[in-house]
Specification:
By secondary structure, this protein is α+β, with helices and mostly antiparallel strands. It has seven helices and 16 strands. The chain has a six-stranded mixed beta sheet, with helices on one face. A hairpin with a 4-residue loop joins β4 (about 90-95) and β5. About 35% of the residues are buried. Bound molecules: iron/sulfur cluster (SF4). Iron/sulfur cluster binds near residues 221, 222, 229 and 230. Iron/sulfur cluster binds near residues 227, 229, 230, 256 and 260.
């Protein structure tokens, strides 16, 4: 841990205090390009949030800086969004259809003004919790033309480099180290990393590098032996079944009825001490359709489900 802290410090990645660290919740578009201003604005915003007179925002309150040609973070959680707009950028509060159209230089002061306004309205948690919605301050009344949230990009080539996912969202240190030799790494909020400038899929085991990778059609929790509550291993089974899952369908393999990996309804297998229960469409806690399937018979029970209309 000490070595990690030293390394982070040498890279300028440690904040001066826990307070300023907790305020610096900035989501940056991983697809930023040097000329689109995203990086510059994010750095200025980080500086403003570390200043002694920075607004004392709640721990979960955050900003999205998403100034690429196309906004890519709209499906990701943020309270104040800075995006490309006519003549510069737009700054808006989450949940509002209007905002401010300003120059890139004015983006951070406008975002700070919105943050102070949020606190003045008695905001304690998130922008969406301000109900009923108070009227925005002066300067934020321009109706903004923004499209609904797009799905995050899949693994593969992007204009900024190659996006890679980690199998089951778990990355080994060796894999990360190998990836880092291929280019600078950008974090994404989509359980993926972007390798800056990389033009081909990295050949490193444990990575999901293509949109058509079958492992994107399965989700599995830690399972045994990593989780003490698991009745069986989950990931080897999910890995083995993945190629059978048709495109557009999702199979959830859960180590117990808690369903940590996917709290929503899906085709679900739940490990029990007697075998796997199959739920055709439900969460891991739903009533099973078939009980106690053995590992040998699971595939034959699943195949008809996959081919159902
Ligand atoms: S779903 Fe159950 S087995 Fe899987 S990680 Fe959660 S608690 Fe553990």
């Amino acid at each position: 841990h000490a070595a990690l802290l030293q390394g982070l410090d040498a890279l300028g990645l440690l904040d001066s205090s826990a307070d300023s660290e907790s305020r610096r919740n900035i989501l940056v578009s991983p697809l930023w390009q040097p000329e689109d201003g995203t990086q510059r604005i994010a750095a200025a915003l980080a500086q403003a949030l570390a200043a002694p007179d920075a607004p004392a925002l709640p721990g979960k309150f955050g900003f999205a800086v998403d100034c690429g040609a196309q906004a890519v973070l709209r499906a990701d959680s943020a309270d104040i969004r800075i995006e490309r707009g006519p003549g510069g950028v737009t700054v808006r509060a989450e949940g509002y259809a209007t905002g401010a159209c300003v120059s890139a230089e004015e983006a951070v002061p406008a975002a700070m003004a919105l943050a102070h306004w949020f606190l003045a309205q008695g905001g304690k948690t998130r922008m969406a919790a301000l109900t009923p919605q108070p009227a925005l301050p002066q300067g934020f009344q321009t109706t903004l033309d923004f499209s609904p949230a797009a799905a995050p990009p899949p693994p593969g080539l992007t204009p900024a480099g190659w996006l890679v996912g980690a199998e089951f969202g778990q990355l080994q240190a060796d894999t990360l180290a190998a990836l880092a030799t291929l280019g600078a790494l950008r974090l994404t909020p989509w359980r993926m990393l972007l390798v800056e400038g990389l033009q081909h899929a990295p050949e490193i085991p444990g990575l999901v590098t293509e949109a058509l990778d079958a492992r994107l059609r399965v989700v599995a929790c830690t399972g045994a032996p990593g989780c003490l509550q698991a009745a069986a291993a989950t990931r080897p089974l999910a890995r083995a079944l993945a190629p059978s899952v048709p495109a557009g369908q999702l199979l959830h393999v859960s180590g117990c009825s808690k369903g940590c990996a996917h709290p929503r309804a899906a085709l679900t297998l739940v490990a029990t001490p007697a075998g796997f229960n199959l739920i055709h469409h439900g969460t891991a806690a739903s009533a099973p359709d078939l009980l106690a399937l053995s590992l040998e018979t699971i595939a034959s029970h699943l195949l008809p489900t996959f081919h159902a209309p």
